[in-house]
């Protein structure tokens, strides 16, 4: 996934004293823009601003050098669909059925009319756009008819404009969806998608590995698109199919177009990158630049995408009036289904830094992620160890834009604007994270609830953090989560277990 950058504007509250939320500001009183850059599978240790030395990320480093870098920021889940759901809606995904990793033909997961960051900011007078990876389903119950108008979609939850990778790069359909339609679809070559039995007569990676330019290591062996086996089966839509090598250029160009078209109108851009999710097939100009194979090269490409957005703000004179937030949807993974040398060429690089686990894991590498906030002149330059959760973006940006929101929809979101703007170094009292098990962090302590899930995923070579007994770690003394001290701290274990149960009971768990 690509990095998430949000540009936040300080003094925003004061601005709205003289402007009712339903009114657009007069010339000279422009609302601050907000740019949220959301990377995919980018780990806590994958950026040079977070200590990485193998690959340089100068554009992301620039944001960090001009803004506030968080060391204790968390996504709500160790996988992408639930993280995105929670971030956009302000509600933990585990409260709602059907928010696991979505298939490429899943129906819209966020119900139309539900409160989201986009709907809140739209009410405040923002033009709202989403560009890049979506992975939250499209269309009605039963999934979309890809050959007709594809709705409901982002527009029904507050986005004025959308240009989407419908699910992920490794899932069919391998096409772009702009607003309600597939880009470049020939009506005489309709698309059909299946996640059950094979359809059509196109070769699969399983049956024709000789046709693959990137072979699979596990799964990812269904219909071959652009020389790469995918998850799921697809036929038709030949003229509309994407070329993986061009994907970063395409979506970055669309994001820039959105910014440039706003003129004097305030905007919110949710730029959701594909990098560094599999398949990692960067453009030829980035190949070999990292010395770490396609995964490292995809990080270089991600940095370039971020730089293009930042440079566009500079060119248009919008830098001082734009709040940028850069973050990731979950932790890192090396081999996630393709033989792309990510393991062989890691070369001592530690994608999760000092943390244990990774994507899919209840350990902190699954959910502790990079978070950088820049708003020149308003957000201080430096570091923050405040406890932060992405589930709070909705309430915080609602406060930022002087808006109320439906707390029945977004009941888990708390206003942490002062923390994001660097005016408060404390942050949340506690955060909750989810993999198979739920965990809770409060102060120096982390508790992982007991569960009977597998302890290790042999395919991705990641410890999953599951155990049939309670786990308690003191993160101040043991950030690597090596020593389970639950047995020796029964009172603290019970305190956190009770608090987790209270939060769960408050809104339910499905």
Topology:
Elements: E1 6-7, H1 12-15, E2 33-39, H2 58-65, E3 68-70, E4 73-74, H3 80-89, H4 117-123, E5 127-133, E6 161-165, E7 177-178, E8 181-182, E9 192-194, E10 224-225, E11 228-229, E12 233-235, H5 247-260, E13 267-272, H6 293-315, E14 322-328, E15 371-374, E16 382-384, E17 388-389, H7 393-400, H8 417-420, E18 430-434, E19 438-442, E20 445-448, E21 456-457, E22 462-463, E23 471-474, H9 490-507
Parallel strand pairs: 1-15, 2-13, 2-14, 3-16, 4-17, 5-6, 5-13
Antiparallel strand pairs: 1-14, 3-15, 6-7, 7-8, 9-12, 10-11, 14-15, 18-19, 19-20, 20-23, 21-22
Helix content: 10-25%
Radius of gyration: 22 Å
Distance between the termini: 27 Å
What general outline do the C-alpha atoms trace? globular
Structural class, from helix and strand content?
alpha/beta
Uncertain stretches of 5 or more adjacent residues: 1-28
Mean pLDDT: 94
Number of strands: 23
CATH architectural grouping of the domain at 6-191 and 236-317 and 327-333 and 372-420: 3-Layer(aba) Sandwich
User: What is the CATH top level name of the domain at 6-191 and 236-317 and 327-333 and 372-420?
Assistant: Alpha Beta
Tally the helices: what do you get? 9
Strand content: 15-25%
What's the story with the biggest beta sheet? 11 strands, mixed
CATH superfamily of the domain at 6-191 and 236-317 and 327-333 and 372-420: Alkaline Phosphatase, subunit A
Q: Per CATH, what is the topology of the domain at 6-191 and 236-317 and 327-333 and 372-420?
A: Alkaline Phosphatase, subunit A
């Amino acid at each position: 996934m690509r990095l998430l950058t949000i540009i936040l504007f300080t003094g925003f509250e004061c601005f709205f004293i003289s402007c009712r939320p339903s009114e657009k500001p007069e010339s000279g009183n422009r609302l601050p823009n907000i740019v949220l850059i959301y990377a995919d599978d980018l780990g806590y240790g994958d950026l040079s601003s977070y200590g990485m030395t193998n690959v340089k990320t100068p554009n992301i480093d620039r944001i960090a050098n001009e803004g506030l870098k968080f060391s204790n920021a968390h996504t709500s889940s160790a996988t992408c669909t639930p993280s995105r759901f929670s971030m956009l809606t302000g509600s933990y995904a585990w409260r709602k059925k059907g928010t696991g990793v979505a298939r490429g033909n899943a129906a819209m997961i966020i119900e139309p009319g539900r409160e989201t960051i986009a709907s809140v900011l739209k009410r405040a007078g923002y033009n709202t756009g989403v560009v890049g990876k979506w992975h939250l389903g499209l269309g009605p119950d039963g999934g979309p008819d890809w050959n007709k108008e594809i709705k409901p979609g982002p527009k029904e939850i507050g986005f004025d404009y959308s240009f989407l990778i419908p699910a992920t790069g490794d899932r069919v359909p391998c096409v772009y969806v702009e607003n309600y339609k597939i880009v470049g679809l020939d009506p005489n070559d309709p698309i059909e998608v299946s996640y059950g039995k094979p359809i059509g007569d196109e070769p699969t990676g399983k049956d024709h590995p000789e046709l693959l330019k990137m072979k699979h290591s596990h799964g990812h062996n269904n219909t071959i698109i652009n020389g790469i086996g995918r998850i799921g089966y697809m036929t038709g839509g030949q003229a509309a199919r994407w070329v993986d090598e061009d994907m970063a250029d395409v979506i970055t160009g669309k994001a820039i177009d959105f910014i440039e078209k706003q003129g004097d109108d305030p905007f919110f851009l949710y730029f959701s990158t594909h990098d560094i999710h599999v398949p990692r097939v960067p453009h030829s100009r980035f190949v070999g630049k990292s010395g770490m194979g396609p995964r490292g090269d995809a990080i270089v490409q991600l940095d370039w995408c971020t730089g293009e957005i930042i440079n566009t703000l500079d060119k248009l004179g919008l830098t001082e009036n734009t709040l940028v937030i850069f973050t990731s949807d979950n932790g890192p993974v090396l081999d996630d289904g393709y033989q792309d040398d990510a393991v062989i060429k890691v070369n001592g690089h530690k994608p999760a830094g000092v943390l244990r686990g990774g994507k899919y894991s209840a350990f902190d590498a699954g959910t502790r992620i990079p978070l950088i906030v820049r708003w020149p002149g308003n957000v201080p330059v430096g570091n923050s160890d405040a406890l932060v959760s992405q589930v709070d973006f909705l309430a915080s940006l609602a406060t930022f834009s002087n808006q109320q929101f439906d707390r029945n929809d977004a009941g888990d979101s708390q206003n942490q604007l002062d923390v994001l703007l660097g005016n408060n170094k404390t942050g949340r009292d506690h955060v909750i994270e989810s993999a198979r098990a739920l965990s809770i962090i409060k102060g120096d302590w982390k508790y992982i609830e007991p569960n009977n899930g597998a302890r290790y995923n042999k395919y991705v070579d990641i410890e999953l953090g599951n155990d049939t007994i309670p786990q308690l770690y003191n993160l101040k003394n043991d950030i690597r989560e090596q020593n389970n001290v639950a047995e020796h701290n029964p009172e603290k274990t019970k305190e956190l277990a009770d608090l987790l149960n209270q939060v769960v009971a408050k809104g339910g768990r499905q």
